[in-house]
Amino acid sequence: MPLFERLGYAGLLPFIAATLAVLVGVHGAESFFIVYSAFILSFMSGACWGVQQAHPDRTNNIDLSIAIGVFLWGWLMYFMPFTYALLGLLVGFISLLLLEQRP
């Protein structure tokens, strides 16, 4: 398995640990989950920029704007109550998925 795949799967471990910590009521687990999610959403948004720079023939202003919007959206969720932040981050991750699947 290539290193990038192993690192990608390793990046799921904090999500799993934070989810379990939230479920058992560990103090601060909700904040950690939201901050880590915002970090990952930001990282993935930045990766979209890199892919678009590597393929300038397929780059357009809308895709770049969506990537920046998702980045900002993720950090806005830090200031929301936990339940709203979860839903908002889900919207952010789905938005990136849809952006990445565009031809």
Apparent shape: flat
What proportion of the residues is helical, as a percent range?
over 70%
Mean pLDDT: 91
Separation, N- and C-terminal Cα atoms: 27 Å
The helix count comes to 5
Radius of gyration: 15 Å
Number of domains: 1
Tell me the major beta sheet: none
Given helix and strand content, the structural type is mainly alpha
Number of beta-strand segments: 0
The string of secondary-structure elements, in order, is: HHHHH
* Low-pLDDT windows of residues: none
Strand content: under 5%
Write the layout of secondary structure elements.
Blueprint: H1 3-10, H2 12-24, H3 29-54, H4 61-76, H5 82-101
Helix pairs in contact: 2-3, 3-4, 3-5, 4-5
Kindly list the characteristics that best describe this protein.
103 residues; mainly alpha; 0% strand; flat
Overview of this protein structure:
The protein has one domain (3-101). The radius of gyration is 15 Å and the shape is flat. The longest helix is centred in the middle third of the chain and has 26 residues, at 29-54. Helix content is 81%, strand content 0%. It has 103 residues and is mainly alpha-helical. The relative contact order is 0.12.
